[in-house]
């Protein structure tokens, strides 16, 4: 399961679902009191970006309102920097469930496109149940 398009020709993939895009912020951030945020709310902040595995780029914002960015290379460092209030992050909804952290809240970004969730497999050696897995996951994600 991946949340970025694969540019490696050794793999094939299929979109099986969509996840909401969330903003991660310190729990004492003024935006944390809101139920959801907009891209414009985040535009004036420093956004942590994981260029290797992350799903967010500044291309989500219009060119004249893109946030400042800081590169990060590890989810634990990402969470730590967010929890102390220095930066914000954008991520797939699954991150909030897989990496709960005291001091961090996640709010839906209501005007951001959702993130495609893909099932990937070796192009030259697909498993005989690949199509069945795609169908099951698509049903579970509610996109089928």
From TrEMBL:
The keyword Electron transport does not apply. InterPro entries: LysR_subst-bd (IPR005119). Residues 4-138 form the LysR substrate-binding domain. Gene3D superfamilies: Periplasmic binding protein-like II. The keyword Transcription regulation applies. Keywords: DNA-binding, Transcription, Transcription regulation. Pfam families: LysR_substrate. GO terms for molecular function: DNA binding; DNA-binding transcription factor activity. One of its GO terms (cellular component) is protein-DNA complex. Belongs to the LysR transcriptional regulatory family. PANTHER family: HCA OPERON TRANSCRIPTIONAL ACTIVATOR HCAR, TRANSCRIPTIONAL DUAL REGULATOR HCAR-RELATED. This is LysR family transcriptional regulator. It comes from Streptomyces azureus. The lineage of its organism: Bacteria, Bacillati, Actinomycetota, Actinomycetes, Kitasatosporales.
């Amino acid at each position: 399961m991946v949340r970025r398009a694969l540019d490696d020709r050794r793999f094939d993939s299929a979109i099986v679902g969509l996840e909401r895009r969330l903003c991660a912020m310190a729990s004492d951030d003024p935006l944390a009191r809101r139920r959801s945020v907009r891209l414009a709310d985040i535009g004036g902040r420093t956004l942590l970006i994981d260029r290797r595995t992350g799903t967010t780029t500044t291309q989500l914002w219009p060119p004249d309102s893109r946030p400042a960015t800081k590169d990060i290379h590890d989810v634990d460092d990402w969470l730590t920097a967010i929890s102390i209030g220095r930066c914000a992050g954008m991520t797939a909804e699954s991150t909030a469930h897989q990496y709960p952290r005291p001091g961090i809240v996640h709010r839906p970004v209501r005007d951001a496109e959702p993130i495609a969730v893909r099932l990937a497999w070796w192009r030259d050696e697909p498993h005989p149940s690949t199509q069945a897995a795609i169908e099951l996951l698509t049903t579970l994600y509610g996109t089928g």
